[in-house]
Design brief:
The protein has 243 residues and is mainly beta. Helices cover 9% and strands 69% of the residues. It contains two helices and ten strands; from the N terminus they run H-E-E-E-E-E-E-E-E-H-E-E. The protein has an eight-stranded antiparallel β-barrel with strand order 1-2-3-4-5-6-7-10. A hairpin with a 4-residue loop joins strand 6 and strand 7. The chain is elongated, with a radius of gyration of 27 Å. 14% of the residues are buried. The N terminus is likely disordered.
Amino acid sequence: MKTYLSGLLLLVCVTMCRAEDTNSSYRYSFKVYGLSVSESFEYTQRFGIEDPYTRITEMSNWRIFHPTFALQWKTKADNYQEIEITFLEINSNELRQIDVLYLDNAYKKFFGGIKVTTTHLSLRYEYIYRFTKAVDRRFDFSLGAGINPYFFNISEDPVISNQFPTHERNMGAFFHVVPRIQFNLSNKLYMDLNVPFCLFYYNHRRMEREDPQLTEELKILTFTDNTLLPEVYSVRVGVGFRF
């Protein structure tokens, strides 16, 4: 009888120990991030080899706690891989305007406007190396290396015939190194704080203007930007659920 009781007690202890194992029992996890990004870029454009006109565009952007979704899974080496949907948007806005001018003792109306369609898709893949692989730790420290490809397209179609549509397509990628701290709240629930550092940025832009007065060389223009250590700063705070 004592032998059976000892065996039952041992089985209960093993079961409880496995329940405390916060990593080995679950291969996948789903995450919801709050992503905050600050970025600044500068573009230089010349619309022809012999054209003296040069445009310099400075752009800055700040997004606070933008929600993203990620799926993480464990590798055979007890590290992680992760795929995140960073941005997904298809948007269409139409702006109509009426300018009223009082001229020659009469009111004259001038109609205008533009329809803007944007498509923005951004994904991230990251391989995460874990420094602390013990199952009984509250904190898990790791370092990730990731690539963030994106596609951004904007089309502007004027509503009046004396103006011409324009299209701009951007394709590129960000390359990051990501220090991470993970705090295990329970067997299944955890928090993830990470700070992606952007090492390199690549962007290829194609601009098309459907203006019949332009030459074929000026209707479609392409630009390529490569930036080492760009001014892109971001922080992610996430909550994950293992399954």
